[in-house]
Amino acid sequence: MTVETFSGAERILEPSAGALLRRRVFGHAGFMIGAAIILAILAAALLAPWLAPHDPYAQDLTRRLVPPVWDAKGSWLDPLGTDQLGRDYLSRLLFGARISLLIGFSAALISGLIGTGLGLCAGYFGGRVDMVASFVVTTRLAMPVVLVALAVVALAGGSLHIVVAVLGLLLWDRFAVVTRAATHQVRQLDYVAAARATGCSTARIILAEILPNIMNALIVIATIEMANAILLDAALSFLGLGVQPPLPDWGLMVAEGKEYMFFSPWVIAIPGLALFTLVLAINLVGDGLRDLAAPENRN
Hints:
Layout: E1 2-6, E2 9-13, H1 17-26, H2 29-46, H3 48-51, H4 89-125, H5 127-141, H6 145-156, H7 160-170, H8 173-186, H9 190-197, H10 202-210, H11 215-238, H12 250-257, H13 266-293
Antiparallel strand pairs: 1-2
Helix pairs in contact: 2-4, 2-13, 4-5, 4-7, 4-8, 4-11, 6-7, 7-11, 8-11, 9-10, 11-12, 11-13, 12-13
C-alpha cells in the first residue's frame, strides 16, 4: 500500500489486483514448493537427452548392480548406480520422468474432457439429461478402478498407449460430479440470464460464460487426477501389466528391482522416492490452487 499527498491531503492507494495475486502466490509456501519441484522434474525430463550420462537402454552385464556414488563401492561413472542389467540408473530415472509426466497429463486431459463435458450438460440442461448423466456416473463409481484397469490391460496387453487410454477412461467421475454441481450453481446467476436474454446460443453460454467461471475447480481436480494416474500407472507397471520393458518407467523400475531389494536397496528406493516426490509436489500444487482460488482468499 502506498500513500500520496494531493492538495495537502493524504490519499491511500490500494495495491493493484496483480500485486495482490503475486502476494498470495508467493506467500503460499506449499504451492511454491510444489511448483518448484514440478518445474525441476519437468526440466529434467525435457533435458534428459543432454543430462543423462549414458544411454538408458544400454546394458553392461559386467557392471550389474553397481551401488550409488555415496556407497564405498560406488563411482561417479554411474552416480545413482546401475540395475540388474547394468543400465545406468540416473539415465533411466531422467527418461522415466518423461513417461510419468506424459501418462499423468494425458490421462488427466482425457478424463477432464469426458467428465467436464458430461458435467456441463447435466448441470446446465437438468431434467432427463441430468438423470442420464447421474446414472452414468453412478455406474462408473460402482466399478473399482484398479480391478477394471487390471482386467482391461490384461486383456488388451500392456503398453504406454493402452495405459493412458484406460486411465483416461476411468478417472473422469470427479470431473463430472464437480462440474455438474458448479454448473448448476452458475447457471442461476445474472450474467448467464443476461447472455440468454441477448440471444446467445447454448454453446456460447456454456463455453464462454459458464466454463471459464468454474475453471478453478476443474484445475484442482486435474491435479488430483494427474497424481492418481501416475500412482495407478506405477501399480500396473509393478504388477507387470502397465508399461512394458525396456521403457524406463518408475513403477517398472521398482518391479524390476524388488528381487534385489535386500542386497541392493537403492534399486527400489530411488524410483520409489522419485514417485513420492512427484506425487507430493502435484498434491501441494493442487492444495495451493484450491486455497488461492477460494473466495475468502481473493482480497
